[in-house]
Design brief:
- With 338 residues, the protein is mainly alpha-helical.
- Helices cover 86% and strands 0% of the residues.
- The protein has 14 helices and no strands.
- It has helices spanning 2-48, 51-71, 75-88, 92-130, 136-141, 146-172, 176-199, 205-229, 231-235, 242-258, 261-276, 280-302, 307-316, 320-337.
- Helix 2 (51-71) crosses helix 11, helix 3 runs parallel beside helix 13 (307-316) and helix 13 (307-316) runs antiparallel to helix 14.
- The longest helix has 47 residues, at 2-48.
Amino acid sequence: ICRCRALRVEDARVNYARQFAQHAALTVITTVLAGVLFYVLRIVLYKYLPQEDYGLFYVILSFVTIVQTLVTFGFDPGLVPFVTQYREEKDPDAIKSVAIGSLVPQAAITMSIVVLFLVMPPLLAPWAAANPQAPAFVRALAHPATPSLFRVLALHAVFVLLFKCAQQVFLGLQAIAWRNAADLARAVCCLGVAATLLQMGWGLRATAVAYTVGALAEVIVLGAAFFISFPQIVRARYTWRPELVRNVFDTGKWLSVGFGGIVLFSSVDTVVISVVRKDLSDAAAYQVALPTITIFYSLMIAAGVSLLPMVRTLWLRGEQELLAKSVERLYAAAIAVM
């Protein structure tokens, strides 16, 4: 009996390790492809745009990214363990309720910030015009092209909110292939739309439109994935559960602190450079060098993306013995892929 039990544990360990290795390898490959595409996108933008315009766009985008990260703080990573739990309990109603419920406070904050984005540039323009020595960040906010960029990026923020929530749901469902396919679709659309619009003479407007269309593409792919692979969640009943939303935030706030990531840090860097310098070309130079570091960092964390739902699954299934014996192997596999 003990031998049979040991064999079952070993078989389960092999199956979990194989699944984790497949997910990790798929994520790493997608990260490499998407990283290369976004790298090429930077090259295309730098080729067609003046340095000042290139710096202007990435200062504005970095500012929007910082705000977006603060809006989603706690909710994004907090969804994963709950979605994993309700997947194990075969409760699609709870999955739909926790996903949509977490969007409600984020959407309310996002709408308020969108209004701020739209009213801020006209208010800053007179002051920036009267102070030619103002920091590059202030001049970027007061730039004549900034209101139109903010209008498009406000829509981009809405799409990002949707696809980031869906990404975490698919991670909890361990539907890694759909998640990676959506990321790849976003990168392809961003590059394709930017190259097309720049050749058509759209100039600076092409940047925000390309990023927004890319985010929309990811929303469409993930939305289609729900209908194709998880129709039971689409048909499930939604109920407002405020206590569940609070639990998601309480669980995710520490994960958000731990996994703030280079995206947030690089955005803060870009804004800080534009605050302490008077020339937007300095921020442009930083954004030219940044993708190299971003690719390496993304590769480091890509392999471990599916580790959280995997460990959560083992715990929920009451396989503490298997978890104790496997967690070091799973971690070693993640390090090996990195």
